[in-house]
Each structure stands twice: as C-alpha cells, then as structure tokens.
C-alpha cells in the first residue's frame, strides 16, 4: 500500500535529522525535499536521505525554457531520487525536454526518476485562477487540460488536489498518476491550502499517493500523526 510522502519542509539538515530521529530507525519513509530544504542543504540532503534507505520525491517544480530544464534534469537525475517534478504550465516541449534530460542523466543500469507535472497548485482557488491568471474556464477544466498535456508529453502523471483525481483519470488513463498534496485531517488548519481533502476522501477519489507536510511535521507527535494518516488511507482502500 502506498506510503504517504512526508514533505520535509525544514530550514536545514539539522532540523531534518531531529525530525527523523523520532521515527523507528528501521522505518523506511517516502520523503519530499522541496525548495526550502534544497536551497539550504543542497544535493547533499538528498544523498543523505537516499543513503539512509528512504525514497525521495525531489520537488523543485522546474519551469523554464526547455534547454535550461533539460540540462538541470540531467544533473538532478544523478541524485538517485524516485520522483521529481516540473510545472505543466511550462508546456509540452519543456516537459519533453525534462524527460529527455532525466533519461540522459541517469547512470547506466539505474532507472530514471518518474517525472510528474504540477497542474494548478493546491493553494490556488478557482476564483484566483480566473482573476489572476486570466484563465477563462473552470478549475477542473484547467487541471484536466494540463493533465492531458502532461500525458501527451509522455510523463507519468500529475500533482493535483485529490478533488480532481477521478476526472483526471477519466480524461487520461487509470494508470496516470495523481499525486495529491493539500491533505488535512478534519481537525487540522488549512493554512495556505485552498483545495484540501482528508486522507479518507483522497483514497475514495482515486489519489495514488498523499503528500503531507504540516499535519505531520507540525504535529505535537509527528509519528502518531503519520501513522494515523497512513491508517486512514489504508482503511479507505480496504473498504473499496
Ligand atoms: O508539488 C508539490 O509537492 C505541491 C504541489 C501543490 O500543488 N501543492 C502543494 O502543497 N505541494 C507541496 O506539498 C506540500 C504540502 O505541505 P502541507 O500543506 O504542509 O501539507 C508542500 O511541500 C508543497 O510545496
């Protein structure tokens, strides 16, 4: 059963080590390294996590001209991560270049990381999207359109809200990955997220994997919060 990805949104490696020390040593986690941690701790933090046996989602959301993205992905491909991402809004050519860079940069005998694309950030509401991006359609139309472009570019799936997973799979294919942040327990604050979903509902809607940050990292007992979210997710799957 797919483990939730824990977003390690911490300021430095010391904070990551303090956080991880709370988990049983043998527990292999699926960790996300995002911009804050990567900009502070650099590629070494990824190497550290991989060497400790954890799976890593490197979330740098690349969005630039195709050549720049391709060359950057060549570098990132050597780090041994399992999953990485770009912004779908960068376009089909950029996404194809990202994929090509990952394949070219992967050491011989290793599998390239899976590549997914962010559709509309889960912190974006429909109203914001329409007013600020001048996107003259519904949020679900925009998200499914970006997912179709992502599939056309040959990527493995998208980052989206679980609210959209079902329609994305209908518009693409059942095996097209929907990796879903914006996860909150009913008792959690929503913070800056707009399109939030509980772990149970996310499983029901067809999310392939949860991405969870603050509900775990800021919890009084992070290990219990992690276990609770994982258990809710697994229980909802068992019911299906
Ligand atoms: O690509 C992502 O991981 C991502 C995409 C998105 O649309 N929304 C989103 O929240 N994320 C990331 O998922 C994590 C969610 O964190 P929490 O809101 O603290 O659970 C953060 O690290 C975000 O950078």
From TrEMBL:
EC no.?
Answer: 4.1.1.23
Enzyme class, first EC level, given as a word: lyase
What's a GO biological-process term for it?
'de novo' pyrimidine nucleobase biosynthetic process
Pfam families on file: OMPdecase
Under the GO molecular function aspect, what terms does this record hold?
orotidine-5'-phosphate decarboxylase activity
**Superkingdom of the source?**
Bacteria
Q: Which reaction does it catalyse?
A: orotidine 5'-phosphate + H(+) = UMP + CO2
Write down the HAMAP family for this protein, in alphabetical order: OMPdecase_type1_B (MF_01200_B)
Stated family: Belongs to the OMP decarboxylase family. Type 1 subfamily.
Protein role: Catalyzes the decarboxylation of orotidine 5'-monophosphate (OMP) to uridine 5'-monophosphate (UMP).
Its recorded name reads: Orotidine 5'-phosphate decarboxylase
Q: Which organism is it from?
A: Loigolactobacillus coryniformis subsp. torquens DSM 20004 = KCTC 3535
Q: What is the lineage of its organism?
A: Bacteria, Bacillati, Bacillota, Bacilli, Lactobacillales
The UniProt gene name for this protein comes to pyrF
